[in-house]
Amino acid sequence: MPRRIPCTAPVRLRTPGRFPGFLKTASVCALIAGLLTPFSVGTARTASAAELTAVNDHCGAQCSDILPPGQNGNATLAQILLNQAFGAQPAHAEDQLGPYANLAKGYPALTDQTINTFFNDASFGVPADQVASTVKPAGRGDVTIVRDKKTGVPHITGTTRYGTEFGAGYAAAEDRLWLMDVFRHVGRGQLTSFAGGAADNQGLEQQFWRNAPYTEADLQAQIDNAVAVNGARGQLALADANAYLAGVNAYIDASDSGRYFPGEYVLTGHKDSITNAGSIAHFKITDLVALGSVIGALFGSGGGGEVNNAISLLAAQQKYGVEQGTRVWESFRERNDPEAVLTVHDGKSFPYAAKPENPQGQALPDAGSVVEEPLVYDRTGAAAAPAAATASATAAATAFSSARRGMSNALVVSGDHTASGHPVAVFGPQTGYFAPQLLLLQELQGPGISARGASFAGLSMYVELGRGQDYSWSATTSGQDIIDTYAVELCQDDFHYLYRGACTAMEKIEQKNAWKPTTADNSPAGSYTMRVWRTKYGPVTHRATVGGKKVAYTTLRSSYFHEADSIIGFQMLNDPGYVTGPESFQSAAQHINYTFNWFYADSEHTAYYNSGDNPVRAAGVDAEFPAWAQPAYEWRGWNPATNTASYTPPSQHPNSVDQDYYISWNNKQAQDYTTAPWGDGSVHRGNLLETRVKKLVQAGGVTRASLVKAMADAALADLRAEDVLPDLLKVINSAPVTDTAAAAAAGKLQAWLTAGGKRTETTAGSKTYANADAVRILDAWWPLLVKAQFEPGLGAGLYTAFTADLPVDEPPSAAHGPTGAHAGSSFQYGWWSYVDKDLRAVLGEPVKGPLAQKYCGGGSLSACRDALLTSLKEAAGRTAAQVYPGDALCAAGNQWCADSIVQRTLGGIKHGNISWQNRPTYQQVVEFTSHR
What we know:
Elements: H1 28-42, E1 63-66, H2 77-86, H3 97-106, E2 120-121, E3 131-135, E4 143-148, E5 154-158, H4 161-187, H5 191-195, H6 199-211, H7 216-228, H8 231-258, H9 264-267, H10 285-299, H11 306-320, H12 322-333, E6 349-352, E7 371-372, E8 376-381, H13 386-400, E9 409-413, E10 424-428, E11 434-435, E12 439-446, E13 449-456, E14 465-467, E15 471-477, E16 483-491, E17 493-499, E18 502-505, E19 507-515, E20 526-535, E21 538-546, E22 549-557, H14 567-573, H15 582-589, E23 596-602, E24 606-610, E25 627-628, E26 655-657, E27 661-664, E28 671-673, H16 686-699, H17 704-715, H18 719-723, H19 725-732, H20 740-754, H21 772-794, H22 796-805, H23 832-842, H24 861-876, H25 880-883, H26 895-899, E29 904-905, E30 923-926
Parallel strand pairs: 5-12, 6-28, 11-29, 16-25
Antiparallel strand pairs: 1-2, 1-30, 3-4, 4-5, 7-21, 8-20, 9-10, 9-27, 10-30, 12-13, 13-14, 14-15, 15-23, 16-17, 16-22, 17-18, 19-20, 20-21, 21-22, 23-24, 24-26
């Protein structure tokens, strides 16, 4: 519970980064005195010593999980004031943050017996002496919500399916109501009107609404379609969703009348803390689709970037000529690099999105003609400020890139190589770090449902990642290409296009937003209109000319208008009557149209399946580039009225059962299976897992603890140091280093490499890295050395174009991806493979899948060495303040803080930052001992 705070004087509250001007002059004691009484009454629960009986739990107390910062993501106004003034935390708001953070220094001594020092016991049920509360929501007799003392996770047991889902909705709202409300508005492009006009809010709603600009009718049509095409399971999903919504809305009504609703509703002007005037809108079924569109776009929609690809191809051809320029481009693209780490490594091939021998239908833009389609119009007030323009530019760059920050990892080992003979898995999604967290934990037990795990808030009618009675499953983002760009030829004006010979009007979709200052967000008043032009081939993203003809480039995604469809797959994963082994697990995953890698483990088997609706493209169409919007180049079987098409059959998706081990960190899935993002080459962060797990498997006797250690060790590794720095030092040390500054820098880098190349504290809590100076040098050196190595040979224009396709670097301190800085996930995208291949070629070492030519020093080892030494000396001279310039959280020069993980505030509760780890946000450790 929150610490008791003596009230002796008014206190000026601290301003959280998310809420500028947040309660700057409030008198805490006066406000708290008026608020504590209704809060205490409103949240009182009926305590019970009753034990929730475990149902067919085959894990034998060997299932664990963790999800920081804590289960409780709701806070009353009184609790928010206490947190802002004194750092006091509501119960269970951050009790999982400490164990999660402590693994970074605690993993070397880990044993199977101490795993739950750093994780939660994820067994089904709650022992009688660990029951904190028992509630029958809304007085229903068919559902009970039991919360445990340690973490406050809800264990929901229903005697009817309706009651089970009602309880899931009630518990979700109890833990995440404000967050759920925020993200339904994000999905509808209405965040600024709801939560305020801060630049971050503007960027967030623009990024997601651009890709899914749906009307209310569109959202409802998705539901109707998902129900209609899925028979009895579709009807069941609809009933489950309605019961879930009833539970959510019951909590809204109870918390409103009891006055214990989240305090953010007061701070954003939706409720009055004195009179209770105002309202919290009930959730409706279309809100679930709006929420799903955000999650799908953020984590499960691979592809895009075709316009950027075309621009860089043209730049390569302009420099080298068409034939050689194409070879250069293809070598950097690494569509099917023979040195890439693979998830399915048994040699089986799964051809997809390969380069066609005779490309057809390409619609490459005329050089210099591409213009990004504006999204925002009629800016006023804060919407016209420079910060707003920057947020809009970042949102657009993220939306149009194929370098989508997928995140998540998995380590799964077959029972043939474990000490017990049972498979062991350590896996989970990296979904960023938020307060409250996007995910929530729950256990669901009811007719046809038996699972515990994590679900996205507002979509938790089923467990989405977790464990069943005798099996567990998880996912990583896969990134295969389900998004294509089409060039529609314009006619009449800029808002009509040729569709199968007829001049057809584009559909204008608009969202008008306006806001004014609130206590939570004192951004000046402002407004704007977001406008998207939709075609049969998807929303317009760019304008250009192709062969002198005016065109609009559109983006068509196979999951566009189909975000709701995946509910059936999740329903199946929660059904113990459906999932009985690896084959039925794979069948369930086949019903999920998001681009994910799915992993499975029970007491006897492991399995893998790559999901997503992979469209069958017309012969000769290259998925890398825009194609003409003509029937000959459309997806096969495409129906524009429903955006359905022919999809590759499940057997052509990478899949496997009982491979010796599986690893995934958003790397290449299998041989010949092309993913949309660039960078699947010789060095990928997946190598950090591959190296460690392969070593464990070769030694045999793998345990839960040893596999957690492998994950945790990789989580602290600097990929550049572990896999590329040896090449760099080999070139530098190919002759004596006579410059004292360069020699000293190289010596520090070598010492760090010898120590393991990790970014880790000297001791737990020191907030100082071991080998800190070497870390600083490499952070400063990497962008300098990449430029020195490649820009002279590529030329400034082509080098810049390639950096738009693949960012040069992604260290922990960088602000990257949809979650911004301090997000943990690092080293997903960068030029490490290019540097590695080029340096090995210059050194005369064998390289499979080399670049089209040698770049460093023009292929001369001595010239290459000179370029690296010059850039190294420059990097060594850069101060910590230059390398880590500081931000709202960290002072300039504070290296540890620059890397640190922050729970990005989406509400009123703040948490302290923790030391960097590159690991899943929600994570399971599982080893089942028996099977049904």
